[in-house]
Write a structure and sequence with these properties.
The protein has 482 residues and is of the alpha/beta class. 24% of the residues lie in helices and 23% in strands. It has two domains: 107 residues, Immunoglobulin-like, CATH 2.60.40.290; 301 residues, Glycosidases (TIM Barrel). It is built from twelve helices and 20 strands. Helix 4 runs parallel beside helix 5 and helix 5 runs parallel beside helix 6. It is globular, with a radius of gyration of 23 Å. Bound molecules: ligand IDC.
């Protein structure tokens, strides 16, 4: 058996805002797991565990066991499968993150109720530092906190996650705009005034979970000044259907992370293939029942119930919407819900149809909007004309768009992207760009390798698409405040 050792990093002062770090020396070649407290408050804390294969050979799976003292429990976790026996929590891969190439790492996280730190930490059955019961050494120095206490004026109703360091209290998009609603064809804020939200979409959570963490969300909220974070939870392709509990908790965690930074969170049930959302009707009932109950009290949540219906009629989409919207409304009556449209959310244009079939036969529900998606290098004047026409009758929300081809790749079409963004600004149509990730494709905003490096702020990490979007999103919002 390969030598296994654990690197244990822990916050030493439980109640104090400052965290100190203790390190157990590693052998030259080992698999490691690093436990870091990323935020703490009086009754609990949030932690991240980075499992790293520091050996020179691939490993096929991993298992981390943490024993917590009596009175301290794990409330929820993400990016891992959690089991508990006594006070010992065992975390195994979530499904997509089992195999680790030499030098590769994966991260999972948890929210803990109680202030006790792990007394034992094992990776693949071996004790930290080679002993059965490692103790966390006392801090050798106190370092300034990486994650200061939130500056919010209102305490979050659930366990907070890391708050931004620079967003002034009361000035975040959610603090200014509050609970959103649809008024006429617009998205309106708490003062019933039309607003436009501008932000970024994740890539598939099953593939790019390592891109969504405290540092990347801080960059989005404070460096990009984004209003909106779309959480793209694929249902197929290794997504929700493979582990509903894990993906639900991952989405909920990201909702919290957006809330802690004053950003709106768009929960995207990312159906794509098969294109008929009714295929996932029961999954959607379960998922939206869970996330709407859990997030009902929050003001920052918007629900997108079907990413891109395709190969299905408008009637089929409408039937799906009229079954899922009541599930959400039962828990969260005032949240805005967005309905996907025919032909990959093209308002039907990509199917040779158009918005008139929706206008003639709208979804029977209030406080809803309709999704429109475009990829600037593929979709041009005729699509823009349809959006302009439809915007007079239907509340539209561009929940996804790319600056490149519809396959997510190719070169940035700057002229078409700029024409689109100017149109959306003029019509006050909100948007989320595909993607805030370091995928190796033209639509990704971050250069390949950015997420592994852990640094997200500034322009050095951006692709051409990312630079364009950051410069557009960073301009002042001017939200009405009365
Ligand atoms: C693409 C991703 C790509 C992935 C593919 C398959 O960019 O890495 O392999 O999905 O799932 C959409 C979809 C969105 C697509 C994107 C680009 O909503 O899931 O992402 N796109 O093809 N609609 C139009 C384009």
């Amino acid at each position: 058996m390969r030598s296994l050792k654990v690197k244990l990093l822990a916050a030493a002062a439980v109640a104090a805002a400052a965290s100190a770090v203790a390190l157990i020396a590693l052998p030259a070649s080992a698999e490691t797991a690093a436990f870091t407290v990323t935020n703490s408050w009086s009754t609990g804390y949030q932690a991240a565990v980075v499992v790293k294969n520091d050996t020179s050979a691939p490993i096929s799976t991993w298992r981390v066991e943490l024993t917590l003292p009596a009175g301290t429990t794990v409330v929820n976790s993400w990016n891992a499968t959690q089991a508990v026996a006594g006070g010992t929590y065992t975390f195994t891969p979530a499904g997509w993150n089992a195999a680790l190439a030499a030098g590769a790492s994966t991260e999972f996280g948890m929210v803990v109720n109680g202030t006790g730190r792990p007394t034992t930490c094992l990776v693949n059955g071996r004790a930290c530092g080679g002993s059965a019961t490692p103790t966390t050494p006392a801090p050798t120095s106190s370092s300034p906190t990486a994650n200061p206490s939130p500056t919010r004026t209102t305490a979050p109703t659930t366990a907070p996650t890391t708050a931004p360091t620079t967003a002034p209290a009361g000035r975040t998009p959610v603090a200014i705009n509050g609970q959103l609603r649809v008024c006429g064809v617009n998205l309106c804020n708490q003062y019933n005034r039309p607003i436009q939200l501008r932000g970024m979409s994740t890539h598939g959570l099953q593939w790019f979970a390592n891109c969504y963490n405290s540092a990347s969300l801080d960059a989005l909220a404070t460096d990009w000044q984004a209003d909106l974070f779309r959480i793209a939870m694929y249902v197929q392709e290794g997504g929700y259907e493979t582990n509903p509990a894990s993906f639900t908790s991952q989405v909920n965690n990201l909702v919290d992370q957006a809330e802690a930074r004053g950003m709106y969170a768009l929960i995207d049930f990312h159906t794509l293939t098969p294109g008929d959302p009714n295929y996932n009707l029961e999954r959607a009932r379960t998922f939206f029942g869970a996330v709407s109950a859990r997030n009902a009290a929050k003001k920052n949540v918007i629900y997108e119930i079907a990413n891109e219906p395709n190969g299905v009629s408008w009637t089929g989409i409408k039937n799906y919407a009229e079954q899922i919207i009541p599930v959400i409304r039962a828990n969260d009556p005032d949240a805005v819900v967005i309905v996907g449209t025919r032909g990959w959310s093209s308002l039907g244009v990509s199917d040779g149809a158009g918005s008139s079939e929706i206008i003639a036969n709208p979804v029977r529900a209030t406080n809803i909007m309709y999704a429109f998606h475009f990829y600037a290098a593929s979709h041009k004047d005729n699509y823009r004309a349809e959006v302009e026409r439809a915007a007079g009758s239907l509340p539209l929300f561009v929940t996804e768009f790319g600056t490149v081809n519809a396959n997510g790749g190719g070169a940035v079409d700057t002229a078409s992207s700029t024409a689109w963004l100017d149109l959306l600004d003029r019509l006050k149509i909100s948007y989320a760009n595909w993607t805030f990730s370091d995928a190796g494709e033209g639509s990704a905003a971050l250069k390949p390798g950015t997420c592994a490096s852990g640094t997200y702020a500034g322009t050095g990490v951006l692709t051409e698409s990312g630079a364009l979007l950051r410069s557009r999103i960073r301009t002042a919002d001017n939200f009405p405040t009365s």
